[in-house]
Amino acid sequence: MKTINVRRWAWVHKWSSLVCTVFMLLLCITGLPLIYHHEIDHLLGNAIEAPVMPAATPKASLDDVIAAGKALYPNKVMMYMSQEADEREIWYLTMGDTPTSEQFKSIAVDARTATVLGEPSFEGTFLGVMFHLHVDLYAGLWGKLFLGFMGLLLIVAIISGVVLYAPFMRKLHFGEVRRTRGPRVKWLDLHNMLGIVTLTWLFVVGATGMINTWADLLVKYYQYTEVAAMIAPYQGMPTPSKLGSMETAMANATAAEPAMQVGFVAFPGTAFSSPHHYGIFMHGDQPLTSRLYKPVLVDAQTSEITDRRELPWYLTALLVSQPLHFGDYGGGWLQFLWAMLDIAAIIVLGSGIYLWLKRGVQTISPGEPS
């Protein structure tokens, strides 16, 4: 590679790295506890447990489950209800002053007895703070888009780093760390070695993280296209004053998709439904397919299915990117691998900052990134 090209790539790598490194370091640090968010919730005593009952215990009517939430907050309306793929004994209800309220209450209800188990706390907790710093910097959509741009710069830094690695290592063995040289050279070698080893993981996590920051925009586009087409026959009709049975609506949805499980339900007026429908989102029962949803639109008055179709490709890509980003679809060993790679990335990013701060201490060749 010509020297002029090396210098150009070094310039691209240096500035793309410098701009994004601090934020990427923040994301890696905050992402580490999120990998083990279930375990940390249990450790801190924030997890809500369902009482042990025989496996054959029948489930309560969903109408009774909803009634339990409304009895606790009679002046609020239902927004969503959901279940975890591996925790079918609890329904989590989300209730707010309006269907689109940004302030809401979360309620855990026993799916078998329709009794309130508690109110999960998230905002203001350790994991809540980590989540907001990781997802939007407490800045909403603009925070997400900003972090998405930082993810794009990370991808540029990775690509330029790969281009620079070959000429930089032409006189060294792969992964060699020159321990007899000064501390800056040793950290430079360690930075390059860990960077190339974690290359694929960093690229996947950076790319999927960038895709995740587009979630709000993709959902809005989905509303204006797919959902608008699904609810077109209801345009101009008055909003229903009384909702039909959720138990009947769910029975119809599960009968239509017998090989799938219920992931969450969006109530009329929320982002994933319409003013006239329940949006019942079904998913598969395998670790990866449990993240792929199929919406079933149900008339909120008659509880009859009006439409059901596959999600568009861009939302499927978004949903697939989420488990790849957090590594939470393959059990404990995959979580451990993700955690180790995250720690390696923290070392890469931290050493990059160190090398920049110490850039004037030692002269390096044009092929060495600074």
TrEMBL record:
This is PepSY-associated TM helix domain-containing protein. Keywords: Membrane, Transmembrane, Transmembrane helix. InterPro entries: PepSY-ass_TM. The keyword Methyltransferase does not apply. The chain crosses the membrane at residues 12-36, 145-169, 190-211, 336-357.
